[in-house]
Amino acid sequence: YQICVFEPRSGNADPESYLFIAGMVVSSIDQVPEGMVAHEVPAAQYAIFEHKGALDTLHKTYEYIFGAWLAENKCVMAEADCLEVYDERFKYGEEDSILDIYIPITKL
Asked: How many Å apart are CA 52 and CA 63, to the nearest integer?
């Protein structure tokens, strides 16, 4: 997983700055190894999109989501984490690669 952590913006925060976490699902966070962090993704309603193709075209999928899909479906991005899920369908650099993008949404 890649998590784009939602952090409420303060007056001093850079709106172009994001915290990304590369991670995996674990059964317990009782003992977090040194140099690692635990992060719980809060519950939210998500729209799920498939990105097909190499990572160099990933921006096109995000442009569609934020430039068209949200407005067409009368949604806005909710105040929650975004996720990218890299499973067995993901093949780095390959045109037949697939990953899922989870965008937290709120209906207008």
From this structure: 14
